[in-house]
Amino acid sequence: MGSLRFIARRIMGGVTLIIAVVVLNFFLLSAAPGDVADMLATQAGGATTEQIDNIRKEMGLDRTVFRQMLI
Question: Which pLDDT band, with edges at 50, 70 and 90, does 5 fall under?
Fold first, then answer.
């Protein structure tokens, strides 16, 4: 029974660590300047602000950071 408890704690610790890394990574990337819509517009040779706004809306980038995390 002791080894089963040990294994369960290790698995739960691993899952917790993975969730923490994903959340930290997401928030660090969202804090970086620019976003995916800007990069896509630049790669496409430039785009109007209306096109960039449409890209942001399609990708859900117009929502709050917390809402984006849950998508």
Answer: very high
